[in-house]
C-alpha cells in the first residue's frame, strides 16, 4: 500500500513537471512577445492628488518573436465575478493624452492609469477608465474599502491576464493620500 502511494505522488509530480514544460515550450514557440505587468507607481502633477499607474512592458523570449503588438487594449477585471470588464486607457509617451488602443513595443514601458484620489474633504476616489479620461465623466466612484482586481491585455483574439492581483486600499474621506495605496499581491485577499 505504501509503495502505491509513493508511486502516485511521483506520478503526480511528473505530471505537474510535464505541464509546466509544455506551457514554457508553448510560450517559446509563440511568435508573440509576452506582456509583463509591473508594480504600481504613483504619478501625479498636483500636490493634493494621488494617481496610481501600472507599467506594462513586452518581454521577447527569442529572436523569432515580434518586437511589437499592435492595437492592444487593457481592461480591469474582478476575479470571481462574471461581469463585464472595465475598459481602461493607455497613457501616451508625451503624457498629455490617453488612448484606448496602442501598439506596444519591446524596450518601451507603457503606463495604464488605474485610480485617482483627491485629498480634499470629500476624498473623491475613482477608477480612471476611458469615460473619465475622455470626458471627465465619473462612472466608478469608489467607497472606502479594499478592492481586488486583475489587469487583462487584449491584442486581436489573444488575451493575457496579470499573474498577480492589484489591491487598492481606499481610505475614508478626510484621511491623507498616504493611506491610498495600490499594491501587488500574489494571492487574493480573503
What can be said about this structure in brief?
The chain has helices at 2-29, 130-135; strands at 34-37, 41-42, 49-59, 68-77, 86-87, 90-91, 98-99, 102-105, 110-118, 125-127, 145-155, 158-161, 165-170, 181-185.
Write a concise keyword list for the protein shown above.
single chain; 190 residues; alpha+beta; five-stranded antiparallel β-sheet; 2 helices; 18% helix; globular
Describe it.
With 190 residues, the chain is of the alpha+beta class. The chain has 2 domains: 30 residues; 151 residues, no CATH class. Helix content is 18%, strand content 39%. The chain contains 2 helices and 14 strands; from the N terminus they run H-E-E-E-E-E-E-E-E-E-E-H-E-E-E-E. A hairpin with a 2-residue loop joins strand 11 and strand 12. The radius of gyration is 20 Å and the shape is globular. 24% of the residues are buried.
Secondary-structure blueprint of this entry?
Elements: H1 2-29, E1 34-37, E2 41-42, E3 49-59, E4 68-77, E5 86-87, E6 90-91, E7 98-99, E8 102-105, E9 110-118, E10 125-127, H2 130-135, E11 145-155, E12 158-161, E13 165-170, E14 181-185
Antiparallel strand pairs: 1-3, 2-3, 3-9, 4-5, 4-8, 4-11, 6-7, 9-10, 11-12, 11-13, 13-14
